[in-house]
Write a structure and sequence with these properties.
- The chain is built from 25 helices and seven strands.
- By secondary structure, the protein is an alpha+beta fold.
- Strands 2-4-5-7-6 form a five-stranded mixed sheet, with helices on one face. The chain has a two-stranded antiparallel sheet with strand order 1-3.
- It starts with a helix and ends in a 5-residue tail after the last strand.
């Protein structure tokens, strides 16, 4: 009885505060700030949080506080149950309309659009966001633009999605809204990933992670950004880093119940485990992806989960099972599904499954749908142009038909005249041909002489360029002797080495037969001997050339020469301290239209560490030259240092 008495006299606020876990940290109407917004003032998003808001918001004393709590309740339910989220959103809309509060009506519409988006009602979401834009404040616009970007992304209009992400970023920077900036970076990262520009995607994803971590709150969008960064690492084949980001995302998602993010991450982990040939783990991940998609009752997640399962079964050679899984994926994607990106993947994978099962007719049909969807996603801007070209083509065809008929009539009339004139023209042609042959002989002799003169002049130019570069090098040497600052002297010496590497290219051009290409093995031999002599390490450090004779054009040879010069110089300076001995290996090979360059040493393995990347001029120069050659650089520091490059080599004909 005493306990009942105590329960009766305790104020209602205290009952609420103690009725749910963590309530005292979130809602207390006796405080000056009665409501701590989750992921803003607190990260307490436990299992009871939504129940707490549902019970507490009707007791709020002001409409503003009531609307704020109800909107959070509606928005955060969409991570767990879309129908429940829409229920509370509709309550908020009705209350705001009844109170004639246009601002909060617009904010509830943004939440409503976020839910409709995940219910695959893309056009409705876009319409409601357009209505909300005229009702909310300017500081609400970044989040509104983010949702509009999501809609256009789902509709396959990646260019418009990027426009809204950039608008959100611009407003975030103007208002110094770090969360808006982080969201915009995250969205751009995801869009770059969809466009297969994974390095750009990774760059923006890491920027977003840094801003989120500066804010210090592990919210829904930070969790999603970890997933996006993992996706970019996955496509860049950095599997360990991808796994780390996926695991981090899962830890947050499971802690807070972010079912949508959990389904996303497990879908990607299916791909990751498949790449690693760990099919058992991939199957477990697929089951988890499906589980969370079903909990959320989200068709988009269900479709992608079955797609991931179909991909896995394809890799395992289980084509019949893959076909069934992919049919389920496609069946979930209704006519207004909108996302041609993932739907195209489903049809592509289905085509592969049919082909693997020798159902070639069905495979052809699936690939045809895939091609159509892919064109819509990645060449949307070209649709109007293609239609215009088709119209122009039809008109041209009709004009050609008319012209052809007129030509036939004219030919019939002129046929006899042409036959008579043919013999005369033939004789005239033979006469002109004879005279042309005589003139060609004279011209050929003249051209041969001119070519010899031009070749001589070109060699002389290369000779003079080489001499001028050596003069510049000598001037730098003289200037260095007058300078006592070691950093400046080092910089000038490095510049001498770079100039010398270019000078050697011009020296080979005037010494060898070809004026347009360089034989790289002999060039590297001369360059390495020069660097060994400059640093005085003969007999202590050996440079080995692991390559066949390869000829490269000048525009490619000079940047590669500068890259090798930088790396050899670094090895001489840092890889073998205290008079240590060792070797440096330079390897270059050409496969098809790709060049593979690798410079490795067996030194102490600390020439460049991760903290130093991008800080020195030499490193910046190597990265700049790598981008100039449309290449990629990979650094491995283990039992020495190895830097490898992949370049696209499209030599002009």
């Amino acid at each position: 009885m005493r306990l009942r008495f105590l329960t009766v006299v305790i104020p209602l606020t205290i009952i609420l505060l103690n009725g749910f876990l963590g309530v005292s940290q979130i809602v207390d109407f006796n405080r000056e700030n009665p409501y701590k917004k989750v992921f803003v003032d607190t990260d307490n998003f436990g299992a009871s949080y939504l129940d707490t808001l549902e019970t507490s918001y009707p007791l709020a004393k002001s409409d503003t506080l009531k609307f704020c709590m109800l909107n959070d309740l509606a928005y955060y339910w969409h991570t767990r149950n879309l129908n429940r989220s829409m229920h509370f959103t509709q309550i908020g809309l009705d209350m705001a309309s009844k109170k004639e509060n246009t601002l909060w009506e617009g904010r509830f519409q943004i939440t409503q659009a976020a839910v409709l988006l995940r219910m695959e009602a893309l056009d409705s979401a876009l319409t409601i966001l357009s209505q909300a834009k005229g009702k909310v404040n300017e500081n609400d616009l970044p989040f509104l633009y983010t949702q509009m970007g999501y809609v256009y992304e789902r509709k396959g209009q990646l260019d418009r999605a990027a426009d809204y992400a950039l608008l959100a970023l611009q407003l975030g920077e103007e208002h110094k809204d770090k969360r808006a900036i982080a969201l915009a970076y995250s969205d751009l990262s995801n869009l770059f990933w969809k466009q297969s520009r994974f390095e750009s995607g990774l760059e923006y994803g890491l920027k977003s992670v840094a801003v989120f971590e500066e804010l210090g709150v592990n919210d829904l969008d930070y969790d999603f950004t970890l997933y996006v960064v993992g996706n970019n690492y996955l496509r860049l084949k950095e599997y360990e880093k991808a796994m780390n980001y996926f695991d981090h995302s899962i830890a947050i998602g499971e802690r807070y119940g972010f079912y949508n993010n959990l389904s996303d991450v497990y879908i990607s982990k299916v791909d990751l485990y498949t790449y690693l040939n760990e099919f058992g783990k991939a199957s477990v991940a697929a089951g988890n992806a499906l589980k969370y998609a079903e909990l959320l009752d989200n068709g988009f997640m269900l479709m992608r989960s079955w797609l991931a399962i179909g991909k896995l079964q394809n890799i395992q050679g289980k084509y019949i099972s893959a076909i069934e899984s992919l049919k389920k994926s496609i069946a979930i994607a209704t006519d207004d599904f909108g996302d041609g990106y993932f739907l195209s993947q489903a049809y592509e994978t289905l085509g592969k499954a049919y082909a693997g099962n020798h159902n070639y007719q069905e495979a052809y049909q699936a690939f045809a749908v895939y091609d159509d969807l892919k064109d819509k996603v990645f060449t949307a801007e070209a649709d109007q142009r293609i239609s215009l070209l088709r119209t122009e083509y039809d008109v041209a065809q009709k004009e050609n038909t008319i012209q052809l008929q007129q030509t036939r009539i004219t030919k019939q009339q002129l046929r006899q005249t042409l036959i008579m004139a043919f013999v005369f023209l033939l004789l005239l042609y033979l006469l002109l041909l004879f005279k042309a042959m005589k003139n060609n002989r004279k011209k050929n002799k003249m051209l041969e002489k001119q070519n010899q003169e031009k070749e001589f002049l070109l060699k002389e130019i290369h000779h003079r360029v080489k001499n001028n570069l050596e003069i510049v090098s000598s001037l730098l040497t003289l200037q260095s002797a007058e300078i006592s600052d070691k950093k400046i002297v080092d910089a000038m010496e490095n510049s001498q080495h770079r100039i010398q590497s270019m000078s050697m290219v011009h020296q080979k051009l005037y010494q060898e037969n070809s004026l347009s290409s360089i034989e790289m093995k002999s060039y590297f031999f001369n360059l390495s001997n020069y660097i060994v002599n400059v640093f005085g390490v003969q007999g202590r450090i050996e440079v080995l050339l692991d390559m066949e004779e390869i000829e490269l054009d000048v525009d490619t040879a000079i940047p590669i020469g500068l890259i090798v010069n930088e790396l050899l110089t670094n090895s001489m300076k840092y890889a073998f301290p205290e008079q240590a001995s060792g070797s440096v290996v330079v390897a270059l090979r050409k496969t098809g239209d790709q060049l593979f360059l690798k410079v490795s040493d067996n030194g102490i393995g600390a020439i460049v560490n991760e903290n130093e990347i991008g800080t020195g001029f030499g490193t910046k120069l190597v990265k700049l030259l790598t981008r100039q050659l449309d290449g990629e650089m990979h650094l491995v520091v283990e039992n020495g240092t190895a830097v490898s490059f992949e370049f696209q080599y499209n030599k002009a004909a």
